[in-house]
Amino acid sequence: MTRDHQTLQSRLVAQQPIDEASFQNYRHAVDQMFIEKLGPARRTHLAIRILFGLAIAGYIVYDLAANRTQPLHHLIIDAVIVLVAIVWSAYLLRDFLNASMDRRKRGKIQAFLQLGLIVIIAAATFIAAAAAPDTLQSIRVLTAGAVFLVIVSVLHLRGQIRNARMDLEQRNLELQLRIAALTESLTRKESHESL
Amino acid sequence: MPSETEKLRTQLLVLRCMRDDPSAWPELVAAWERKMLYYISRLVPRHHDAYDILQQVWFAAYRGIGRLDDPRDFSPWIYRIARNKAIDHRQLRLLKTTDAADDLPTSDDHAQDRFDNAEALHLALDRLSIAHREVLTLYFLEDFSVDQIARVLEVPPGTVKSRLHHAKRDLRQLLENQENP
Prior knowledge:
- The structure holds two protein chains of two kinds.
- Chain A contains six helices and two strands.
- The two termini of chain A are 22 Å apart.
- The radius of gyration of chain A is 27 Å and the shape is elongated.
- The longest helix of chain A has 60 residues, at 135-194.
- By secondary structure, chain A is mainly alpha-helical.
- By secondary structure, chain B is mainly alpha-helical.
- Chain B has helices at 4-18, 24-43, 47-64, 74-90, 93-96, 118-125, 130-142, 146-153, 157-179.
- The chains are: A mainly alpha, B mainly alpha.
């Protein structure tokens, strides 16, 4: 590809008249397409999820206040669950109050929730196993929890592996772009000097 | 046609969009909207419709970018979306059919042409048949290979070669007529 062609392309595109009013409307619509307006049904759904998160956090805090003599690992697990539930509720509360959701942030929220789910399943499994009346019961609970954990973790790990691969690819592209930009500027400089 | 640096910049932007980077989308839209608008405007008779179609293109691209395997495939992919949206919008059945002339054998003259006058080219493009206009727009805007154009148009590569050949011949004729009325 030559620079002549590049110039032709940009000159050709510049021939297209732009209707400013339509262009501004289009731009506004494109900005808005990332924002999903939430109707009453979605907001009710959100409210239920917020209340569920707050109820979990509230129950655990109430339970901690009632039984202050719990072992340390219990306290740590409870604190993690409360933290995840509060952050989750806060995320949803913001969208609920705005009556809109930024679609671009949905991926990050989903990743966070997936991680939160793993932590909660693990915590619930340990609590249930510790509370079991005998060893056999504990093993059963731990096995069931482990199966759930493996399934969710595999899904989460697949996402993480994809992210890591894309991260590498992005760095590689950034390097290639720098090299290409340098080569282009050098070529331009050389051709300028030779004139 | 995009330079190597531009191609890499697009790939990087697409990859960032695939990774849900919120700042990448406005950059990608800004970098591509004028070219896409030019292409869509060549397909639909009313220029006003092109803005609506372009908006739909970005929406479809946003929803589908996660399914894109390789950022290098973005360019033909986005043009294919634009084409399908234009077809849906205007019921352009013409674009889905092939002319009898499309099957005629042609020589490969892909690299031999020089069209320098953008203004004359722009005017001449609008006077070509829609199928020829489309194939030449892709040729001038992106320097796609025959296979890439075939992927956008969803026709066999032989049809693209033939269409390009006939389109260039008609274009040359129109340009000559413009120069020597």
